[in-house]
Amino acid sequence: MSKRLLMQGNTACVEGALRAGMRFFAGYPITPSTEIAELLSIKLPKVNGKFIQMEDEISSMAAIIGASLCGLKSMTATSGPGFSLKQENIGYAAMTEVPCVIVNVMRGGPSTGLPTCVSQSDVMQSRWGTHGDHPIIVIAPVTVKDIYYMTIKAFNYAEAFRVPVVLLLDEVIAHMRECVELDEEIQIVNRKRPATKESYLPYRNEDDGVPHMADFGMGYKYHVTGLVHNEKGYPTSNPDITEKLITRLHKKIEDKASEIVLFDALNITNGGDLLISYGSSARVCKEIIFNEKVRGIGLFIPYTLWPFPEEQLIKLIKDNNIRRIFVAELNTGQLLLEIRRIVGNTCRVIGINKYNGELFTPEDITKKIEEAIE
Amino acid sequence: MNREMIEKYFRKEQLPHIWCPGCGNGIALAAIVDAIDSSDLDKEKICIVSGIGCSSRASGYLNFDSIHTTHGRAIAFATGVKMANPEMNVIVITGDGDCTAIGGNHLIHACRRNIDLNVIVFNNNIYGMTGGQYSPTTPKSAKTATSRHGTVERQFDICDLSRSAGATYVARSTVYHYRHLTDMIKGAFKNKGFSIVEALTPCPVQYGRRNKLGNPPDIMKELKESVSLTDSSKIKIGVFKNESEPEYTSEYHKLVEAEVGKYE
Amino acid sequence: MSKKQIIIGGTGGQGIILSGLILAEAAVFDGKYVVQAQNYGPESRGGASRSDVIISDNEIHYPKVKNADIFLALSQEAYNKYKKYIKDDTVVILDENINADLGNYFKFNIIEFVYNNLKKPMVINIFSLGIINGLTNIVTNDSIEKAIEKNVPRGTFEINYLAYKKGYELAKTKEKRW
Question: What GO molecular function annotation could you give as one example from this UniProt entry (chain B) (predicted)?
Fold first, then answer.
């Protein structure tokens, strides 16, 4: 499919998910993610998939976990208020290691906030929204083309690492249409299934820390619980087993972080300043560095917000003698905290923030940069 | 329960169960196992889904595919399982608080869809695991950990609620009436649609003690006498609804059959 | 043409988003880079809504219109709300009933013409596209025909394409300014 197409962000998400092999979707109507549910209600039956509109966001999240346990790649899509409701069972998916993808199209908050307006204020929630120490992968695309390929990536990561993956879109990139050419080769990853029923342990620590996953209904007859569990899947409160489990859940992602992280570094100049931005805000930053030719400023776009391309950023700062960083985001400063943690005292880190429901204009950002330079 | 059933269907290493002496949950679970054994369900394709609470620990004891989910959400997880693989025989084991308080919304909507789930509610009128707080089925005036002077709330009738919401098989029994309870559950398995069986079961430790109901045999006797198949002055047991109506996953399958292959 | 920015503004329910979509798709058929974005409120009907289209020979990053090269408004509310995007050389196209307080503009009896001559108020958006393209030729007629066919409801292509042509012809009666 190398034809040039005009495609909406939400549509790209749907097409990417279907290409990745997603065959079960449960959701609940909410602006600005609803197009995803509407399109999938039409498209899933055509590929022998299943769509269900559940009674709320909580049950949507529960249903995709149930379906994933039966072997179907599963997804739900929502926005802020619904994302809050899903947190309970996102934690369950993290604990029980059930692959699934959660799309959150960010809109203005808190609470009902600004339903039709853009925001990037769910960044911290996407990492820490559910209770307890837990692993999660969060991906934030910038273009409509990104959305297509990164939705596929999201499923690949969910399957490879048995972890919930949050695809963090925002109102601007979800609703905008853009010409795309979908001509890149893609790779589809499927969960590792056990080779034999003999001595199957559903939560055994394999070499890569990711247990093999049997489909329900195939005679494996295993137990899944959100309680701390042993290799057989049965509840336990043994401190050693508890610690091993929580450690493994984190290490299976941390150990592979260098393979998971996705980022771009554009126009980096030695001794220059660095802009860091993601999602729709990164588009505005690209406009600045490519079209407005603001001198001496480069752009770092993290596509995986978690795990964050931490080592890569540190190296880039060191190699290029970066002393000043601007973090542009549509919130009061969320990723900013993470960047400050990562760079410590090596750089001055300045937040450029907007939270009035509108996207940055290039001037919003250039003005802040100029102010700081003066 | 006879040893043969335990060998056949239980995860023996998970026993003994966590339930208190005098609790009726073990009897209710035994009735489920008897009903499974005497049914023609494909034993390789049974999935037990439970929520959180005393009753919901049952999923860990039975040797089938099983999910011990989050509080109140068992029916929602079960909906995903049944839709993803309609060949699965899905049995939801839940309690009164799990099913009708935090999970009440999922219950009524699963009833409305008439999705082929078999929900067995162990109704002991109390939150046992958390220490005896009142639930939506606690009788008015009963003393609990959160209603020391007697609850002022009115109670749900789980069967009325489910029937009104669209369940196609609705029945009630008690753990005293073991044979009858087993038959009620068998009836649920036979219905292609949403089935719910309310199993009344005593909680001597958290409910009986606070309401001075005596020792477990006294409570069991009281349970026996409080219900009747015919006497309308008592709590009725039996089948209240058993009707055939279009089932959700079958209806959805028709849509898929008509559409499949038309993807552009 | 290196980069052209178009704002189409109107009332929710007038098909503003769809007209932006069709214009954008036509530009894709012409081989351009295109971004189409929208601003809308909670109303499904009523309220000011706007569709932004950016057409360029190069990749587009900032997805919103900064300064309009073409500005069309079908309602007073949309005009008032979005007129800040009008600059000196913007081609401004307004419905006859709009009170404009800024410089040069083209006024057409858009709504009345559609009601009287086409008898189908639903084609106001496509008629407006005809006017835009008649004045500016921002996309080729072949591409816009294809884009209309692809995006309007089945069975309504004829009336929509007729509306497009009528709008295009009406525009040609005015001075060309592109």
Answer: oxidoreductase activity, acting on the aldehyde or oxo group of donors, iron-sulfur protein as acceptor
